[in-house]
# Entry
Amino acid sequence: MSETSQTPDTTQLTAYQAYQKNIRQAETLQEEVMRGAREGENVYQLLLKTAQAVSLMTGSTVFADQIETAIKALYGEAMGIPAALEIELSQTEERLERIRQAEAACAELEYKQPMLNAIRAHEHRIAELKERMNTGG
# Structure
């Protein structure tokens, strides 16, 4: 047997490492889902974590993305269920924080105005979501 046939191909090794990383992440998500179910976490968040775990195990992010889009569109936007609106609120607040940090660090005036516009749009959307959550949809 030649020495090259005994060592794994770099591509195979990289794929194996990615697969192992996905398994670890999926196991972490499974633990979070179990803990969240016991502690009364938002069921829509639990469903998203479950979909993310499935996506990691199948190697396809499409499934989790489709579930998230459906939850936000149907249960959040269309039905106004506060627990589903909470998902978009959390994501919008996280994006707003990143934009604010980028704007504060930005020295170029030509980039500041679009960032300030994005900050105002995110603040407006956050206010809308909070209002809908407070009024029950």
